[in-house]
Task: structure prediction
Amino acid sequence: MRNPAARYHLQPSGTTTVARALDALNFFLADVRDGLGPYLAIYLLTERKWDEASIGSVMSIAAIAGIVAQTPAAP
Result:
């Protein structure tokens, strides 16, 4: 008897291309966020005279926005 699950495709043909593009985007965004984030905080604190609470709020909002933006696109 044939396997009934064999006729169903687990992934459409274009999904691998989209998944690879999202993986690359996530990789480079993480590099920018984690690599430049501490420098950005120090720059805002010393040069722009922001207080620590404002810097933390802005960085938290940016992280949450990134999570919300990626959630619908996650496989």
Notes: The chain is about 70% helix and 0% strand.
